[in-house]
Amino acid sequence: MSNNIAKIRKVEPPAIHRAKNGQERLIGGRWNMLRVTEFLLAKKTWQTMDEIARFVYGSTGEKHRDNTRKHIPSQRRYMLDKDTPIVTDYGPRGMIMRVKVYDQGKSDDQMKFETEISKARDKKEITERRYEDLVRLFLPR
């Protein structure tokens, strides 16, 4: 009888490289939900697609900005699951321009957050029960 036990693969998030000028970027240039969450929580202010692309990919080319925009909806769901919502600022034709961590004390953030979770509920991305939980947690009445 052999001892064939499956090994569990542990995936470590990519390391963060800090340059001499203080800029940070991910090593490996791949999107990582945990590291982007840490980046947004550390900044707490509006972060443009250029700033996030520079952090994740190391550069701000058009391809990297577009890839960053494509990842924002899944990043939003990931952060909502961790009870750390983000709000989004949209530009022309609904293009995502910048994001930041939700600040409950700002009425502008409250309006944007309410709009975003309403859209998510309408698209069936979140359940009615989760919508009510989010409203109760983050929107003062």
Write the layout of secondary structure elements.
Elements: E1 16-18, E2 24-26, H1 33-43, E3 47-48, H2 49-57, H3 62-81, E4 86-90, E5 96-101, H4 107-122, H5 128-138
Antiparallel strand pairs: 1-2, 3-5, 4-5
Describe the structure in your own words.
The chain has helices at residues 33-43, 49-57, 62-81, 107-122, 128-138, and strands spanning 16-18, 24-26, 47-48, 86-90, 96-101. With 141 residues, it is of the alpha+beta class. It has one domain. It has a three-stranded antiparallel β-sheet. The chain has a two-stranded antiparallel sheet with strand order 1-2. A hairpin with a 5-residue loop joins strand 1 (16-18) and strand 2. Helix 2 (49-57) packs across helix 3 (62-81) and helix 4 (107-122) packs antiparallel against helix 5. The model has no long low-confidence stretch (mean pLDDT 90).
In short:
With 141 residues, the protein is an alpha+beta fold.
Number of domains: 1
Cα distance, first to last residue? Answer: 64 Å
Overall number of strands: 5
Radius of gyration: 18 Å
Task: State the strand order across the main sheet.
Answer: 3-5-4
Identify the notable features of this structure and list them briefly:
single chain; 141 residues; three-stranded antiparallel sheet; two-stranded antiparallel ribbon; 5 helices; globular
